[in-house]
Amino acid sequence: MKHTSPPPGGRLLLGAVILLFTLPLVWMVSASVKPAWQLKEDPFSLFPQQWCWSNYHQAVTSMPYARYLANTVCLCCGSVMGTLFSCSLAAYSLARLRWRGRHFCLGLLIATMLLPWHVTMIPRFLLLRELGLYNSLAALILPTFLGDAFFIFLLRQFFLTIPEELSEAARVDGLSEWGVFWQIVLPLSKPALATVALFQFVATWNDFGGPLLYLSDPDKFPLAYGLERFLSSYSDQTHLLMAAATLFTLPIVVLFVLTQKTFLQGIRMGGVKG
Question: How far apart are alpha carbons 119 and 73 in whole angstroms?
Fold first, then answer.
C-alpha cells in the first residue's frame, strides 16, 4: 500500500495539535527546574532564569518516594502478569475452541464493557473486604487474574488472524491443546501481548481510585496516591510539585518511546476478523 504525505494544510493542523498537547508537558518540565521566585513572578515563561536541579532532590526527600515507587512497581508487575495470564486463556477459548454458547458469552463479555467502574465499585469492595484483602496490595492485583473484557476482546481478535492450519499441524504432531496455546499461539502473539501489557502497566501506574478505595496504610500507597498526598502538603511549593509530577510522568513517556513500535503493531494487527 502506497503511503502519501498529508497536504501542507494538514501538516500545519497536525503540528498545531501536537503543540497543543506537548506544551503543558514542556511547561511542567521547565517549571520543575525553576526557582520558586520565578514561578511567582513569571509563571508562564518557558525558560528558567536559574536552573534548580535541587528541586528534584527536595521533592524526593519530602516524601517516601522510594517506598511509593516500590509499591507501584509491585502493583504494575503483578497486574500485568495477572492480566496476561487470564485474558490470554479466555481469548484463546473464545477464538480457537468450539463450544456451545461461545458467541453468547462473547456478546455478554462485550456488554460488560458498557458498565462504568462505579457500578461494580461497592460490590467489589465488599467482596474483597469479606475475603480479608482490604488494605493490601493483593486487593488491587488479584482481580486482574479474573480477566478484563477489553483485553480479552483485543487478544481474541488477534488470535483469529493466526492460521488455523498451524494449530492443526501441531495437533497432528501430538501437541495437546495446552501445547498449541503455549508453543504456537502465544509466540505468534507477542505484539498483541506486549500491547495488553503496556495498556495494563500504564493503567495501574496511573490508578488513583483503586488505592484510594482499598488502601489505608501509607506504607502501601503507590505513586499516584502518594503524589496526591504530596500535593495537599506542598500546595504552595509549585516548583516541587512540578518536579514530583515530572518524576511521575517520565517513566511512562520513556516506556512508550521504547515500545511504541510493538505497541502500534499490536493495535494494527489486532484484526477485524469476527
Answer: 28
Domain that holds residue 192: 62-268
Q: Could you tell me if 159 and 45 lie in one domain?
A: no
Q: State the DSSP string of 95-129.
A: HH---TTHHHHHHHHHHHTTS-HHHHHHHHHHHHH
Type of residue found at 264:
L
> Do both 107 and 155 map to the same domain?
yes
Cell of 229: 498526598
Residues 208-229 have pLDDT tens digits of: 989 989 999 989 999 988 888 8
- What type of residue is 9? G
Q: Do both 158 and 32 map to the same domain? A: no
How many other CB atoms are there within 10 angstroms of residue 246's CB atom?
Answer: 20
As a whole number, mean pLDDT of residues 125-133 equals: 93
pLDDT score of 254 more than 60 = yes
| Same domain, yes or no: 161 and 201 | yes
Q: pTM score, two decimals?
A: 0.85
